[in-house]
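lol ok so funny story. i was supposed to be doing the assay writeup but got distracted and ended up predicting the structure for this chain instead. priorities right. anyway since i did it might as well share w the group, maybe its usefull for someone
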Amino acid sequence: MKIKQKLILSNIAMVVFAVIVVSVPVMIVQVNSMSDNIEDIADGQISTAQMQINHFLRKPEMITADVAHFIATQELNRENIEKMFAHTLQGETVFSQLYFSGTTPVKDGGFFWANDHWQPPADYDQSTRAWFKAGLNAVTFDVSAPYLDLVTNSMVTTIARKAIRGGEFIGVIGIDVSLADFTEMIQVIRLTKSGQTFLLDREGNYITHNDAAKIGKDNFFKENPAFDKYRSQFSVDSVFVNINAGGGKYFAARNISEESGWTLVTVGPASEIFEPLIHNVIMVVIFAVVAVVASLLIALLIAHAIVKPISVVDGIINGIASGKADLTQRISVSNHDEIGSLVKGFNLFVEKLQGIVSQIKNSKDNLTNVESDLQGNIHSTASAITEILENINSVSSQVNSQADAVSQTSAAVAEISENINSLEKMIENQSDGVSQASAAVEEMIGNITSVNQSVEKMAESFDTLSKNASVGVEKQKHVAQAINQVAEQSKTLQEANKAIASVASQTNLLAMNAAIEAAHAGEAGRGFSVVSDEIRKLSENSSEQSKKIGAELKKIEATIEAVVSASQSSSKSFDEVSSMIDSTDELVRQIKAAMEEQQEGSHQIVDVLKMMNDSTLEVRTASKEMAEGNKMILGEIQNLQDATLVIKESMREMGVGAQDINETGAALSNISGEVRDSISQIGEEIDQFNT
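and the output, tada:
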C-alpha cells in the first residue's frame, strides 16, 4: 500500500473513531434517560389511574357499609329497604342498581329487594350468581367478576358485602357499577400513540376493553403469554415496568387494591418508545457520512502535498540505480522539512559511496595477483599430501593383516581355553553326579529297607482288616433284617390309623344326627345338643389328628424305605471291600518280594560308583594343570593384540589427518577459484560506477 493511501485511510479512521467515541456515549445516555422517562410516565399515569379507581370504588364501598348498618339495626321489610335504597341512589348515574338478597334462593321462596323494585323470575337462584359468591366469601367487601346485567342489559360489576344481624349471616348486599365509566376512564391512559390499557380481575380476565364481547370472557395473559411470568412481581405499592417485555412490546402493571384484586395493565409496541432514539441515530449517521466525505477531501489534499517531494526523490534514486550508476550525480534540495533532510542525507551517502568504490577499484589488481600465487601453492600442497596418503594406506594394510593374524591366533587359543574349561566343568559335574548317585543309591537302599518293614506291617494290617470286614458284613445283615421288621410294623400302624379315621368319621356322623334330633326335641333336647356338639368337636379333632398321624407315618415309611435301600447298598459295599482287601493283600506280598531283589541290586551299584569316583579325581587333576598353561598363553597373545590395536589406531588417525589435509587443500583450491570468480564479478560491478 502506498504512503498516500495510508495517509488517506488513517485520516478517515481517525474521523470514524472520533464519531463513534462521541456518538456511542450519547446514545447510551439517551437510552438510559428514555428508560427512566418511560418508567416515570408509566408510574405517574398508572398511579393516577389507581387513585381514581380506588376513589371511584370508595363510594360504593361506603354505600354498602351504610346499608349493612341499616339492615343490622332497623326493622326489616320490603318497603323500608327499597325506600332506603331509592333514597341512597337518588341522582347517581354510575350505579345502576342497589339490592339485598336473602340466603334462600328466590325459586325456593327467598326474597330479593332492589331500589327499582325489580322482581326476578320465578326460577331465579341468586346463590349461583357471581355477586352473591363474592359477598359470601368477602371479609369486608369484594368485587365480583364482570357479568351482563339483566335489567340494564349492560356489562356491570358488583360491590358485594355480607349482611349480618345479631351475629348471624342473613344475606348479601350488592351495588352494580357500570363498566362503561371504567372503560372511558382507562382508555385515556396510554404511554404511546398505539398503546392500550386494560383493567383485569384476579384471574386476568378483562374488566374493561374496547371490544365489549371480551369483557368477563377472554383472559389477557392467555392472549399475551409472554407477560404471564411477570404476574408475581405486581403489587399495590409500586408499578412494574418492562420496556422490552417480549414480542416487541413494552408492558407496565399495578394492582389496584387487595380488596378488589383488580390489576391495571398497559401494553404497546416497544418501537414507538424508541422512535426519538432512532431519529437521533439517523441524524448521527448522516453527520458521520458528511464528516467522512469531508475528511476524505482534506486527506487527499494533505497526502498530495506530502507525497509530491517524496515522488521526486524516488524518481531520481531509481534513475541512479537503473542507469550507469553515475555516482557523481546529486539531488538539488529545496525543502527545509524532514524530506529536505532526507535528500541531504542521500547526497552525503552517494558521496561516501563514490570514495569507497574508488578504493575498491584500486585494490582489485592486487587481489588478482595474490589469487594467482595462492593457486600455485595449493597445487603443490595437494601433490605432497597425496603421496603421504598413499604411504599411510600401504602401512595401514600391513598393520591390518598383522591384526587379523593376531586375532585369529587369539581366537584359536581362546577356543582351546574354553574347551579345557568345559572339560573341567564336565569332570566336576561328573564327579558331583557320581557322588550324588552314590548318596542317592545309599538312601534308596535305606528306603527299600524301610519299605520292606512297612510292607510287612501292611500285610499284618490287611489280615486284621479282612477279619473285621467279615464281622461287619454279618452285622450289616442283622441290621437289614431289623429294618425290614420296622417297615412291616409301620404298615400295621397305617392300618390302625385308617381305622381311627373311620371311627372319627362315623362319630362325626352320629354327632350330626344327635344334633338334628336335639333340635327336633326343642327345649328338652338342649342339653343333649351340647353333648352332641362336644362329640362332634372330639370327632373333628380325632379326624384331624388321624390325618396328621397318617402324614407322619407316610414320612416314616419313606424314611424306612430309604434306610432299607441304603442298608442293601452298604452290604454290597462291604462285600466289595472284603474282596478288594484280599486282592490288595496278594499285591503287597508281591511288592515285598520285588523290594528284596531291588535291595541286592543297589549294593552292586554302590560298588561300581566308588570305582568311577576314583577315576574322575585323577582326570580332574590333569585338567587343572592344562588350564594353568593355557592361561599363560592367552596373556601373551592379549599383549600382542593390544600393541597391534594401538598401531592400527595410530595409522587410522594419521590417515584421517592426511585425508583432512587433502580435503582442506581441495577446499582451498575451490575457495581460490571462488575468490577469482568473485574478484572478476566485483571488478565488473565496480567498473559500472563512474567515479
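The mean pLDDT is 74. The first helix runs from residue 3 to 73.
back to the writeup now i swear
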